[in-house]
């Protein structure tokens, strides 16, 4: 596996000046991001298939071990506050259990049984989207989870940093970021981990865009849980509707904090009319705005 290869270029790395070491790390990070570009069509295809499943109430499921599992958790936990994605529709299958998020669990990644059990215990089915992440592409836990999920009709997405691996062969949507050898041999928290995070960022954010949780590049489904975010909500309403601050504040209050409803209220709709418009258009703000009665 390329991610495990030893590079003679870096064999004396520990004797280099600190700035030179950092330069090598930095170049590796840039190459990791560049390695994602060829996978963009695969990411787009995976997102497009995921959306109808998720519209039917499906869940996003992240499966992985070690660094890859933790990166999946990082991506998933950011979706509820950023896009108001329901907390109960994100599932984490981490080799070794929740404790492995903070501390390594020996041999957990080798357990086929645990990978299968995680899928079965969460009753994964046809509406669910399972994302398996493994730098090596050979992690037994993650491969077993994807295989079991596929057998149950779920969409399976595999993310790996090595080509022609089992992980990429057992899933319906293989995504490869061939990051090659690491500056520190086998330290896949570096280049491989960076590429995985980029891919997950792109994939989950595109899914949220296609789920109508973004409008004009704004997080219109955001949870305003603190003063900073409440202020951001007011600014977004003003940006979208071109209203003044007082109107935006009043609209948000009338909407009970729901930003999309507040936008429609600021545009002249009553709370009931706003909610009805959003319901008619499956919470698509652009379509709901177009559906508002035109005023002279």
TrEMBL record:
InterPro entries: Etherase_MurQ, MURQ/GCKR, SIS_dom, SIS_dom_sf. The keyword Oxidoreductase does not apply. Keywords: Carbohydrate metabolism, Lyase. GO terms for biological process: amino sugar catabolic process; peptidoglycan turnover. The keyword Phosphoprotein does not apply. Its EC number is 4.2.1.126. GO terms for molecular function: carbohydrate derivative binding; carbon-oxygen lyase activity; ether hydrolase activity. Signal peptide: none annotated. Residues 50-213 form the SIS domain. This is N-acetylmuramic acid 6-phosphate etherase.
């Amino acid at each position: 596996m390329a991610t495990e290869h030893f590079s003679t270029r870096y064999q004396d790395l520990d004797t280099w000046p600190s700035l030179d070491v950092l330069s090598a790390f930095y170049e590796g990070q840039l190459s990791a991001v560049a390695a994602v570009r060829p996978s963009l069509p695969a990411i787009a295809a995976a997102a497009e298939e995921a959306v109808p499943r998720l519209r039917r109430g499906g869940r996003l499921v992240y499966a992985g071990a070690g660094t890859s599992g933790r990166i999946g958790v990082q991506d998933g936990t950011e979706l509820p506050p950023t896009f108001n994605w329901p907390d109960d529709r994100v599932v984490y299958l981490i080799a070794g259990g929740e404790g492995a998020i903070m501390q390594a669990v020996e041999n957990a990644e080798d357990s086929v049984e645990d990978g299968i059990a995680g899928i079965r215990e969460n009753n994964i089915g046809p509406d669910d989207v399972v994302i398996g992440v493994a730098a090596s592409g050979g992690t037994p836990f993650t491969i077993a989870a994807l295989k079991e999920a596929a057998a149950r009709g779920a969409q399976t997405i595999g993310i790996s940093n090595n080509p022609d691996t089992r992980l990429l062969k057992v899933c319906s949507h293989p995504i490869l970021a061939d990051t090659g050898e690491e500056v520190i041999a086998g330290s896949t928290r570096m280049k491989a981990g960076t590429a995985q995070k980029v891919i997950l960022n792109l994939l989950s954010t595109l899914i949220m865009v296609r789920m109508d949780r973004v409008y004009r590049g704004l997080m219109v489904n955001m949870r305003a849980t603190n003063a900073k975010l409440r202020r951001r909500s007011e600014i977004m309403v003003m940006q979208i509707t071109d209203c003044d601050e007082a109107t935006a504040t009043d609209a948000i209050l009338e909407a009970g904090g729901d930003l999309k409803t507040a936008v429609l209220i600021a545009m002249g709709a009553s709370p009931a009319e706003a909610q009805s418009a959003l319901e008619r258009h499956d919470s698509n703000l652009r379509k709901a705005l177009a559906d508002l009665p035109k005023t002279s």
